[in-house]
Amino acid sequence: MNEEQRRRLQDRMTRYYRETAVYHQNIDDTVGEVRPSDEEKGLFRALAARCMAERPSVVELGCGRGLTARGILSLLPGATYEGYDASPSAIALAKKAAPDLRFEVADIAALRLARPADVVYANYVLEHTVFPEHVLDACAANTKPGGLLGLIVPLGDLPWEIPPSKRDRRRDVPYRVAFALSRTLHLLRTRYTSHVDPSIIDEPIALRDDAWQPDDDLVYWSSGIELVKLARQRGFDVAWATGRPLRAPREGHALDAARDRLQRIWRVTASPEVPLTTTLSVVFRKR
Question: Which domain holds residue 21?
């Protein structure tokens, strides 16, 4: 997808988030969800164990309703917190729930703070951005040298995995074959050349169907090697990483056994610094 196509997609997604009733209904319906998740708690423990600042400043990009703020602050005594999100509805809910914390409406890709933070994190955010490299630019600009960046990102490390925002195409065999071939070439090029081209999903189901499921609006289908390369280009090194395990083969299922063999082969294309996974939790340290 070229630059102009990405900009058009970004404009459409911006209108979707501002105007689509089903998206705002989803925000209201999930007010009671449990956050931070176990995955986020693990990331927060990793950040706290590696944070060297005595009274650290913490910035969350894409904070939504601010449901994770208390979780990370409980592990960093004396820390300050600021949360930024593009959704006025979500920020209004965050301010209502935690009036003692700072929440602001902002374009996180364009955010440049007067003082960089000791800890920056963005959980389940990057996959919803058409220009993830711009968000990573903001992460780099807003993290102190020696500071930490925490991310949780769904990944398409396996080329035959269809992204959630294309779930309606999973039974379309010609589409799946074409997608897998294209994705294989993309992942091999990312692994073995200096070229890093973010893999953007055109026409996510959120733009085509009123039915809503989590990640129907996913537009960035990253991989571990791609994310590490993009972060390294911006002055970050991997300090810690873990991920959800890949699906284990069921005993006696020939298709599962074949898929497991393919996964073993495909591991040679993965980054040696992060696991082959469906969702990556990673802490980077700024050089």
Answer: 3-286
